[in-house]
Amino acid sequence: MKTWAGSHIQACARAWRRLAAQPASSLLSVLVIGVAISLPLGLYLLFTNISAAASRVNTDPSINVYMTLDASDADARELEKRVRAAAGTAGSVKFVSKEAALAEMKRVTAFKDLMASLDGNPLPHASSLRPAQADAALLSQLRTTLAGLPKVERVVMDFEWAEKLRRFATFAERLVFLIGVVLAMAVVFVTGNTIRLQVLTQREEIEVSRLIGATRRFVRRPFLYFGATQGLLAGSVAVCIVAGLAAWIGSEVQALAGSYGAEFVLSPPSFELAAAVICLSAVLGWLGALLSAGLYVRPVR
Amino acid sequence: MISFENAGKRFPGGFEALKGVNVRVDKGEMVAVTGRSGAGKSTFLKLAAGIELPTQGTVTVNGQNIGTLKESGLAILRRNLGLVFQDHKLLFDRSVFDNVALPLEIAAYSRVEIGKRVRASLDKVGLLSRERSKPIMLSGGEQQRLCIARAIVNRPSILIADEPTGNLDQEYAAQIVELFRSFNQVGVTVLLSTHDQTGLAGLACRRIALDAGTVTS
User: Fold this and answer.
1) Which of A283, B99, B156, B216 could form a disulfide with B82 if both were Cys (CB 3.0 to 4.6 A apart)?
2) Is the pLDDT of residue A120 over 90?
C-alpha cells in the first residue's frame, strides 16, 4: 500500500515537474483548453439563467374570443354564457366589453392621441378564457367550438408563444449539450496531442525505463497525472473566465432587463457547477492522456 | 539460474539470429559469450534479459519461463537483473546521480534509501565525486562505469552485460573486467558478451563461443 501510494505521489510530482519545466507551452495548452471549456459552460449558464427567468413568466394558456363589431350587448351576454359553458367548471372566463376595452386603450398614454382622433369605438366585445387543462388537443378542440359560435370574429390562443419558448429552451439545451460534447472531444484530443509530444520528447527515458524494469503502467502514470492536472487547471480557468464575464456584464444585463420592466439576473456558476466542471475537465484530460499514452507507449520489444 | 533449451530467435523478415541453443548458467558463475559481430551474442543476452522472446524452445531465468510471462511479469523480472547495454543507454539530460537512481525510482524506493544505494553504487565504480555531473561530461570509460553503477544499484543476483569493453581502450577495459570479477566474487552471476577476447585475457571464466547463431564451443 505504501509502495503503491509512493509510486502515485512520485508520478504526480513528475507530472507537475513536466508542467513546470515548460511553463509557456503548459500555460498555452491550459488556456486553449480553458477557453474551449468556457464556451459550453458560458452558454449553459446563460440558458440556465434564461430558463429561470422564463419560469417566472406566466405561461398559463389563455384563449381570447373577439366578436364582430356589429355584435350587440345582448349578443355579448349570450356569447359569455356559451363561453362559460364551453370552458366548464374548472376554467375561468373574463368578459371585456368594447367600452371597457376602449377605456383601457385610452388609459395607455401611447394610444391616447390615436383614440381621440377616432369617431367611434373600433374595438369589439371580447372574452378571455383560461382553461383548467393545458392539453394541446383539448385546447384545439375548444378553439374550434368557440370559433363556431355566432357573432365570433376571431379566436386567438394566447399560449402558443409559451410553447415556442419551451421549444426554444429545449433546442438551446440540446445545442449547448452538442457544443459541450464537441468541445469535450476537443479537450480529449488537445490533451492527447500534448501527451503524444511529451511521449516523443521523452522517448529515450521511456525506452531506458522499460528496459530496466518499468511496467507500462509505471511509464503511463505520470502522463495520466499530467493530463488530469492540465484538465483540472483548464477547468479552473474556464470557471474563472465565465464567473468573470458574468460579474462584468451581469449588472448591465440586469439594468437593461429592468428598463423593459423585466427581471433578469445573470448568476455566476454555483460552487457545485464549478466543482463539477473542474472534475469533468480533469477526467477529460486524464482520458486524453490515457488514449494517447496507450497508443504511443509501446511494448519494450 | 539461466537456462536455454533448444532456444532460437527468428526476427520478422526471416533472419534467424539464434538456432537451437542449449546453455545453462548456474548461480554464481561468470560466463563470457564470445563471437564475431553478428554471431548472435546480443540476441543471446536479450533473451536472457527477457528483452526479446524466443521463437523456438524455452529460456528460463530464475525459474521463470520468459516465453510464458506477461509484459508486466517480464518488467518485474528485468527489475531483478542488472543490465549493462552496449550503447550505455544513459539519459543525458539527467545527472549521474539521477541516472543511477532510475531503477530504484521504478521499484518505488524511498528518497532516503535511493540516496544511500546510489552513493554506494557510485562509490563502487569510482564515480562518487561525479554524482552531480551530466553523463556528457564523462569519458567513455566513466560512462561505462556509470552504466554498471545503474545495473548494480538494485543489488541484482544476475548481471548481464553486452559488450561492456567494446569501445574502451585496454586500460579501461581491464578496469571494467576487474569490476565484473569483483561482483562475481561476492556471488553475483555474471553473463557478459564480447567480440574481443583480448579484453578477457587472464579472466578465469567459462566461455561460450557463438557463430552464426549456434554454439560452437
Assistant:
1) B156
2) no
CB contact under 8 A, B106 and A214: yes
How many other C-beta atoms lie within 10 A of the C-beta of residue B174?
A: 16
Minimal C-alpha gap between A208 and chain B (Å): 6
Hey, of A1, A8, A201, A208, which one would you mutate to test binding to chain B, going by the most B CBs within 10 A of its CB? A208
- Residue A160 or B216, more confident: B216
Average per-residue pLDDT for chain A: 84
CA dihedral sign, ordered B213, B214, B215, B217: negative
Residue A219 half-sphere exposure, CB side, CA atoms within 13 Å? Answer: 31
What distance in Å separates residue B15's CA from the closest CA in chain A? 16
Residues of A near B (CB-CB distance < 8 A)?
3-4, 6-7, 10, 204-205, 207-218, 299-301
Beta bridge partners of B9: B18
Q: Determine the distance in angstroms separating the CA of B107 from the nearest CA of chain A, rounded to an integer.
A: 8
Confidence band, pLDDT 50/70/90 cuts, at residue A160? low
Please tell me which residue of chain A has the smallest CA distance to B90: A208
The pLDDT, as a whole number, for residue A58 is 63
Give the closest of A208, A217, A299 to B91, CB-based.
A208
User: Which spans in chain B are helix H?
Assistant: 41-48, 71-79, 96-106, 111-124, 140-152, 170-185
Which chain A residue is nearest to residue B11, measuring alpha carbons?
A301
- Cα–Cα dist B85/A211, whole Å: 10
The confidence score (pLDDT) of residue B44 equals 93
pLDDT in tens, A184-234: 898 889 888 888 888 888 888 899 999 998 888 889 999 999 999 999 999
Strands A126-130 and A92-96: antiparallel
B77 chain-A contacts, CB cut-off 8 A: 213
DSSP state of B130: G
Name the pLDDT band for A240 (thresholds 50, 70, 90). Answer: very high
- Compute the nearest-CA separation of A276 from chain B (Å): 33
What is the Cα A249 distance to its own chain's centre?
A: 17
The ipTM assigned to this model is: 0.87
Q: What are the backbone angles phi and psi of residue B166, rounded to the nearest 5°?
A: -50, -55
pLDDT of residue A109: 59
Nearest CA in chain A to B156: A212
The overall pTM is greater than 0.80: no
The verdict on a CB contact (< 8 Å) between A213 and B72 is: no
Position B199 pLDDT exceeds 90 = no
Q: Which residue of A has its CA nearest to B47?
A: A301
Residue found under cell 460552487: A271
Is the model's pLDDT at A278 over the cut of 90?
yes
Q: Cα angle at A181 between A180 and A184, to 5 degrees?
A: 85
